[in-house]
Amino acid sequence: MPQSFFILSGQHPELARDEIISITKSYDTKATFLKDSRLVLVKSTVPWKKIVKRATFVRTSGIIVSTIDDLLETKLHLAKPKTFACRVINLSSKRVNAGQMEGEAGAILMRRWGSKVSLSDPEVTVYLIITDDKKYLGYAEGITEPKRPKKIIKYPTELEWKLARCMVNLSQLKEGRTICDSFCGTGTILLEAESMGIHSIGIDFDGKMCDIAKKNLAENGYHSKIINSTYHDIQKIKDKIDGIVTDVPYGVSSKASMPPKKILQDFLSVVPKKMKLVIVYKKGLDVDELSEAKKYEIYRHKSLTRVIAVR
Description:
By secondary structure, this protein is of the alpha/beta class. Helices cover 27% and strands 29% of the residues. It folds into two domains: 3-141, VC0802-like, CATH 3.30.2130.30; 161-310, Rossmann fold (3-Layer(aba) Sandwich), CATH 3.40.50. It is built from eight helices and 15 strands. It has an eight-stranded mixed beta sheet. The chain has a seven-stranded mixed beta sheet with strand order 11-10-9-12-13-15-14, covered by helices on one side. A hairpin with a 2-residue loop joins strand 2 (32-36) and strand 3 (39-43). Helix 1 crosses helix 4 and helix 4 crosses helix 5. The relative contact order is 0.11.
């Protein structure tokens, strides 16, 4: 079974690792994982490009060939590329001379393949990944950046797109499924879901926000249904959705008469118990209904830390 590697960016490390695991499990429940610092190794039938196309916090990814002690004795089962490059990724606690190692590895592969080195646009990139325990040899070819959805109208307190995308992935839903954002605002979560082939339905009691969300979606050719109502309408559409991914408003952005904690409790009371739920809310609003949820804290500034909960 192929083994893929994912080098994470370092931003929100636990969240980033679990996102990779969630994406993979949405396609392959039998996949296995090994986590080491910012490195995640995945044994799965799912192609690594399919995973990285959805992932938010991945810096580098590809296929693991083997662990290595001597590159001269290690075989790369690849068709001869026209051009290649070597990259050292040091995740260990020790300093290494990356330039020297890349040069030595490049010389070995030039003799083996007879290919040219291209640092700007290689057909294949060969990676030497160093951790405190092991050295891995991997490669990647044909990497393309996913197209970002456009957002023509924004709002100061809206959810950052990276967190929105990650939250959709934590739902473990794949293409063709449907999520509901019951506080959809300007449509950030809806846009990220649709960009990954996941259908979405938005609910917001603020008609102005509904109009903005519709315009943002239309700009990308997406046709998510937008309902100008309260989150209580979840009960009306529960048979049409597979999960809920939402950002519960707080403070002045909530525009509600109920305190934020009361809003959260009332919202959770209408969410079907067995439905997948990924929710972000202000730290300090923890309620019993989320006591068993997996939680991640996202520090914003000294007066605001947000919590992503996955149930």
